[in-house]
Description:
Layout: E1 2-4, E2 11-13, E3 16-20, E4 38-41, H1 50-71, E5 75-79, E6 90-93, H2 105-120, E7 123-127, E8 129-131, H3 138-149, E9 152-153, E10 159-160, E11 162-164, H4 165-177, E12 185-188, E13 194-195, H5 196-207, E14 214-216, H6 219-227, H7 232-239, E15 242-244, H8 247-253, H9 264-271, H10 275-279
Parallel strand pairs: 1-3, 4-5, 5-7, 6-15, 7-12, 8-11, 9-14
Antiparallel strand pairs: 2-3, 10-13
Amino acid sequence: MALSRKPVARLRNNNATIATADISVPGSLIPFLSDTDVVIHAASYVGSDARLAHAINEAGTGNVIEQCRQSGVARLIYVSTCSVYGSGPHRGLLESAAGYHPASVASATRAGAEQLILSYGGEVIRPNLVFGAGDRWFVPGLRKMMKVAGGWPGDGSALLSLISVEALGSLVSGLALAPRLSGQAFHAAYPEPVRVSFLLQSVAQVFGVEYPKFLGDDERAGSALRAAGFSGHQIDLVTKDHWYSSEGLWRISGREPETFNSALGEFSSAYQVPRESARS
Length: 280
């Protein structure tokens, strides 16, 4: 059973029944939770509206937990984010070695949601940067930064933890099928971090645009990005080291570790656009 807040007709797709529910509405999940072994909670608000962030990420997660409690669902897995750690640099950070230092209202409320989940005895999965089908933030944001700054701030040497949406789904399902690890959190990323220069090369190739020049510490780049609406935290996330130890979840889920190199075909197909659109 898959639940979405979007008003879709109840149907079957890939052996899953898809139905409509809303975590911000108390009781809306109850009809779908009978005889359920595991609930995977992947609904989050990632914008800057504090009211919505609280209503969806914190209060909504509280609603999910209460309805799982009422329905007798003990196993609850929450898909969170490494952004609950705040800005780095982070280098090979272990789940047990980091505290909460969120730099945005969205990350702060997702950290609050995590604490609710862990207190219930649930499990938390923290991806860092996710690419693939449905991405409206990560790669589109990289391309916008390249355009606005007229290049790329820094020297391109920063290392980032990435994962495709397909690999993330595989890890989530693998954890759901593994024995319960109550109250634990896990990083979800390719074990080998990706250098920003190589990531931008991949973006340039997919969109058929010029590979950006690296602007170093030129303050004009930062000023242009902030004027375009990027926060200092958002800039830091893709210009400083942000990579996390993630071998544990691959092992627990029973999945063979993958790399960004092995997913380049998937990366290209997810963002491939006609050349005319790429130049516009």
